[in-house]
Amino acid sequence: MAEKLNHEEFIKKAIVSLRKEGYKGIHTVYSGFNTAFKKYFDGEDPIKVTNQLASEGKIVVRPVKGGVMLYLPEEAPQMKNAGEDALKKMGL
Question: CA 86, CA 75: separation in Å to the nearest integer?
């Protein structure tokens, strides 16, 4: 049997393997990622692990309707700064 992947390897493999054509990330719920993670890691919490890896800069987590999207750091879309945009529109 092949050696078991660690959390980071599993998540990065999932992002690349589960994303739909034309998309750079995966939705943790709709892609089946959360269920697969729990099964592979014997019930461990994918939210805790993905948040930890995101805080280390190894993946990027973006909130979306119904869950979150996971991205590789080099492929994540840039977050718009709504506050900066509002100030610019206000001329401030």
Answer: 26
CA distances (Å), origin 45, targets 5, 14, 83: 16, 16, 33
For 25-36, how does the pLDDT look when each residue is reduced to its tens digit (9 = 90+)? Answer: 999 999 999 999
Question: Other C-beta atoms within 10 Å of 77: how many?
Answer: 11
Residues of the chain falling short of pLDDT 50:
none
- Helix or strand run (H / E) with residue 27: strand 26-27
- Helical ranges in 6-81 per DSSP H: 7-18, 33-40, 46-55
SS3 63: strand
Per-residue pLDDT at 1: 53
Structural domains in the chain?
Answer: 7-90 (1.10.10)
3-state secondary structure at position 26: strand
